[in-house]
Amino acid sequence: MIIALTGNFGSGKSTASKIFAERGFKIINSDQLVSEIYSSDPSVLSAITHHFGVSILTPQNTLDKQKLAKIIFSDKQSLTWLENLIHPKVIQLINHYTEQDPHSNWIVEIPILFEKNLAIHFDLSICLSAKVDLQLSRLLKKGITLEDAKARIACQMPLEQKEQQADYVIDNNGDITSLRTKIYSFIDNLNL
What's the pLDDT at 67? Predict the structure, then answer.
């Protein structure tokens, strides 16, 4: 089974994925796939440089991800352009990995599952739900500034819409023990 795990920035997707891994799930993090694409696909780097200019590169001619993040999280059109470039390649990689081990259960962390209509590629979807103040707190602990955290959350579909579209919603407003209990219960209820 291939399960998409979504939620807004700071909802706890990475923590939830680790809990699923405790129960034998294989994990794919779409953000890591994006980084892999940036570093291994010259056509992507070329398209990004052509679109945003050479100032988006580091002195070593690699993508300056911090500069790119500043641009895309303050300009919706730039974000949409980049997502349209990257996400077909992300889906190709997800399919590549999951097809190599079709008998395993998979969790795929994918923040913009519904924004890009990607749910059709998965057997089911889970939305992690967390209050905005808790999301911001988690992002600040990761070293993201409050301004950047708010900008990133604002770029995503409202959580309520994600919850309505998801097959399952798991509340993550508590501690890790509470989240683990909810995820284990979810897995047991699906007999996975």
Answer: 94
CA dist 11 and 130 (Å) reads: 5
DSSP 153-165: HHTSPPHHHHHHH
Positive or negative: CA dihedral 67, 74, 149, 93: negative
- Is pTM beyond 0.90? Reply is no
- For the chain, domain boundaries: 2-189
Q: How much is the pLDDT for 99?
A: 96
- Determine the Cα–Cα distance for residues 137 and 130; give it in Å rounded to an integer: 11
Share of the chain above pLDDT 90, in %: 77
Q: Which residue type does 155 have?
A: C
| 162 token code pair | 């994600």
Average pLDDT, the chain: 93
Q: What average pLDDT does this structure show over 131-155?
A: 86
What are the φ/ψ torsions at residue 8 (nearest 5 degrees)?
Answer: -75, 170
Instruction: Write down the CATH number for the domain with range 2-189.
Output: 3.40.50.300
pLDDT per position as a tens digit, 64-102: 999 998 899 888 899 999 999 999 999 999 999 999 999
Measure Cα distances from 46 to 39, 41, 86, 112 in Å: 11, 9, 13, 24
Amino acid at 120: I
Residue by residue, DSSP assigns 37-74 as: HHHH-HHHHHHHHHHH-GGGB-TTSSB-HHHHHHHHTT
